[in-house]
Amino acid sequence: MLIEDRSYQTVWMEGSSVKMIDQNALPFNFQIHECLTYWDTCMAITDMTVRGAGAIGAAAAFAMAQAFLEAPEKDKEVFLQEARGEIEGTRPTARNLFYAVERVFDAGQLSAENAKTEAQRIALQDTEDTRAIGRHGNKLIKNNAHILTHCNAGWLAFVDFGTALSPVYTANKEGKDIFVYVDETRPRGQGARLTAWELMQEGVPFTIIPDNAAAHLMQQGKIDLVIVGADRIARNGDTANKIGTLGRAILANTFGVPFYVAAPTSTIDGDCKSGRDIIIEERSQDEVLYQDGIDANGNKVKVMIAAPGSTAYNPAFDVTPAKYITGIITEHGIIKAHYQSISSLLKTIEDERTKSL
Ligand code: MRU
How many Å lie between the centroid of ligand 1 and the Cα of residue 184? Predict the structure, then answer.
């Protein structure tokens, strides 16, 4: 990704520090946040300084590597088990977090340096996978396509490229005429704040729509294709993604609009039989009751936007049943959201991994 002509990744490791684009400061300020310890990195995942499935996975991988670097000789095992529990406790829904922590934890049994190398490998794999998703997903995008996306599944949500937006960037670079409708994505506004900012950096034409406008646009035939990301995909194709995704999927089904999920296979949880097994994170009611922004002088402000004394319920994700999903765009190509297609892809990947050992 290029930001003001400089190449960046969303999250990376330098020495024993983890560095990341501060997503809470965007879109008003572009700044880099540094985490000196694994605990700092845990905090950055919890407060969403870094967010999005792949970026959370890479940050968690780096946090696990930091824990290996910090582990004292005495009680090393206890320290590492505790650190693993704390990292895994930061965000429960993103599959990539658990996948990454397990890989780095196993690699670290050899040495702390090996843990760090494995974490770097996960970040690199994320980049390559999402680049490939762009190539495959681009085939779905016709010239003059109007695409709806929800939340932010662009490069900010991964180490680079993104999932739902990677095909959009590939299509744009190929010179196709495209237009993106960006759901604002209440309550945190990842669409209005992050996707809009990203599309601007990439020079992709877009407009933000209120979350409740999608039905109207689809009814008017203004949307040709929906592409969203995923936080966890069950073996039967049920998909957890940002709250509001389910509504878009039902609408797309009603109005005959193709609805695609874009995600690397690291987001598929082979142990999870169906969406019923996916734990949905609940976040603070303050995210619904208040909004952050800047005032006319550019100072950060937080304002209350609900009746004082109200409470709010804030589930961060919902699960879209596989029957509403036209296909899943993975790094290996586009597959059906079915038990058989997913199982056969996971088996091919496992067979290739075993062959390469
Ligand atoms: O809570 P967030 O912002 O970390 O949500 C995760 C997401 O970014 C979305 O659900 C996204 O669509 C899938 S992950 C790129």
Answer: 13
Compute, in angstroms, the gap from residue 355 CA to the centroid of ligand 1: 33
Q: What is the CATH number of the domain that holds 184?
A: 3.40.50.10470
Note whether 166 and 247 are same-domain residues.
yes
Q: For atom 9 of ligand 1, which residue has the closest CA?
A: 242
Q: Which residue blocks in the chain are alpha helix, DSSP H?
A: 38-46, 53-70, 76-88, 95-107, 112-138, 166-173, 196-202, 214-219, 245-255, 286-289, 339-356
Gap between the Cα atoms of 288 and 12, Å rounded: 31
Domain boundaries, position 144:
133-356
Same domain for 117 and 146, yes or no, is no
Same domain for 86 and 181? no
Report field, pTM of the whole predicted structure over 0.70: yes
Residues in contact with ligand 1 (CB, 6 Å cut-off)? 51-53, 151-153, 157, 163, 190, 228-231, 241-242, 316
pLDDT of the chain, 357 residues: tens digit per residue: 889 888 999 999 999 999 999 999 999 999 999 999 999 999 999 999 999 999 999 999 999 999 999 999 999 999 999 999 999 999 999 999 999 999 999 999 999 999 999 999 999 999 999 999 999 999 999 999 999 999 999 999 999 999 999 999 999 999 999 999 999 999 999 999 999 999 999 999 999 999 999 999 999 999 999 999 999 999 999 999 999 999 999 999 999 999 999 999 999 999 999 999 999 999 999 999 999 999 999 999 999 999 999 999 999 999 999 999 999 999 999 999 999 999 999 999 999 989 887
